[in-house]
Amino acid sequence: MPDSENPATPVTFPPAFLWGAATSAYQIEGAVREDGRTPSIWDTFSHTPGKTAGGDHGDIAVDHYHRYREDVALMAELGLGAYRFSVSWSRVQPTGRGPAVQKGLDFYRRLVDELLSKGIQPAVTLYHWDLPQELEDAGGWPERDTAYRFAEYAQIVGEALGDRVEQWITLNEPWCSAFLGYASGVHAPGRTDPAASLRAAHHLNLAHGLGATALRSAMPARNSVAISLNSSVVRPLSQDPADLAAARRIDDLANGVFHGPLLHGAYPETLYAATASLTDWDYVLDGDLALIHQPLDALGLNYYTPSLVSAADASAKAPRADGHGSSEHSPWPAADDVAFHQTPGDRTEMGWTIDPTGLHELIMRYTREAPGLPLYITENGAAYDDKIDSDGRVHDPERVAYLHGHLSAVRRAISDGADVRGYFLWSLMDNFEWAYGYGKRFGAVYVDYATLERTPKTSAHWYARAARTGTLPDVDAV
Fold it and tell me: Where is this region: Disordered (predicted)?
């Protein structure tokens, strides 16, 4: 019986398992006009009336740019073995082309040095959705040239940090960049062109391939190059052939559009057929798939909740319960005849169903899809309406239970033969949650947005104990 199914058996992880936490640049750094940084698409989007809850933006965020030493000290107190952060492209290469701004690179050099001095492994994500605005003005991800600009940027950062950072991720959740940014418009840059979103998806794939090549040319061979995908666990509402076909359609748009070329060197033929009304994919040029399909050193998986779908009447105008924000425009190109349903169970503050079985299912899928490829859970976590109690503490038992359930699912997958080497909690601390502004708290560390004071929540102490012992404490142990 797997550990997670026997409450009397401690859930223990392999000794080398990496315990980390993750953030992204625009969500935490602030200092958006300092040391040469220029606007990204998220600066523009968040300052556009009506695009974010309460008109919130990342101008200050949680001021990590000035408080990074304090934050690294907090990571060390919590016993983290690794910290995954992203680099702001606009801070390093303000126009998205040309020479680097050394002051921008120096911030990341200082951050890496601080992490290493505390025994914390840095894991760098090159792109977490914050395209320089000038590149968007030139066409953004639907334009092929953006992929080549990304490779130039990857080379710059790889040369600056590659001697000290061994773990690299090219792109975080390219699905969100392509389809929330260019199809539904709920993320920056806020465009609603389904055909452009498919072009963007291909050019993001191409950017990964070109960027991985650039990184490897700039860094020691020992370094690991990966990508983080928010691959969906797509389940049909029934075994009716129409529902099964709907699930296949969404699986292609959520997963196959990226892991097809990345892992297998080809887009799914079913994806081509399903999107033929929008595009003939003539932007996939000779040699592109070979550039994209090169060896990965690891694969990052981000998981929050599964999807439940069925066939539907394309003329129906019911709300789309896909968990990706409210918009009259769908993030699922050529899939208006697919309905999304709320999955049963308890929910987080985001309205997402809590289902650790989906994480186990996702891990085992990629264990089959890419045998021998090391996996990392690069994001997993939950938003709750956290409050500071009268005793000055933040009690979040729901998040502790969430983490226990999902980490138990990871351990069960390892028992079932999966090569999962680490877990990065999303997120280290409360921050700017994109279009939701500051209203959704994902952090293990509470941030008072008026004073920017950091307070570790109960879940942070629970996770710290797990990281130090390699064993999951009981949910009521802290």
Answer: 315-335
Neighbour-count burial of 67, counting CB atoms closer than 10 A to its CB (0-12 exposed, 13-18 middle, 19+ buried): middle
Distance CA 87, CA 64 (A): 13
230 CB contacts (<8 Å, ≥6 apart)? 173, 175, 176, 302, 303, 304, 379
Q: Are 261 and 267 in contact (CB under 8 A)?
A: yes
Residue 4 has pLDDT above 90, yes or no: no
Alpha helical stretches, state H, 37-171? 41-46, 64-77, 89-92, 102-117, 133-137, 145-161
**Which positions ≥6 away from 70 have C-beta within 8 Å?**
454
Q: Tell me which DSSP letter residue 9 carries.
A: S
Pair 246, 311: CB distance under 8 Å = yes
CB atoms within 10 A of CB 218: 18
CA dist 115 → 73, 84, 111, 314, 464 (Å)? 9, 11, 6, 51, 17
Spell out the residues 6+ positions from residue 323 whose beta carbon is closer than 8 angstroms to its own: 304, 305, 307, 340, 350, 351, 352
Query: Which sign, positive or negative, has the C-alpha torsion 304, 198, 177, 291?
Result: positive
Cβ contact 74:11 at 8 Å: no
- Beta carbons of 236 and 248 less than 8 angstroms apart: no
Rounded to 5°, angle at Cα 263 from 257 and 266: 55
Beta bridge partners of 175: none
Q: Report in angstroms the alpha-carbon separations of 265 from 3, 206, 257, 295, 299.
A: 37, 12, 11, 11, 16
Handedness of CA 88, 90, 93, 97 (dihedral sign): positive
Three-class SS of residue 309? strand
| Nearest C-alpha neighbor of 96 from the set 27, 148, 158, 60 | 148
In 66-139 the beta strands, taken as DSSP E runs, fall at 82-86, 121-127
Q: Is 152 a residue of the active site?
A: no
DSSP state of 48: S
Q: Token pair for residue 410? A: 């990871």
Return d(Cα 407, Cα 413) in angstroms, integer: 10
Query: What confidence tens digit (pLDDT) does each residue in 379-417 have?
Result: 999 999 999 999 999 999 999 999 999 999 999 999 999
Question: What does the pLDDT look like over 255-291, one tens digit per residue?
Answer: 999 999 999 999 999 999 999 999 999 999 999 999 9
200 or 314: which leads in pLDDT: 200
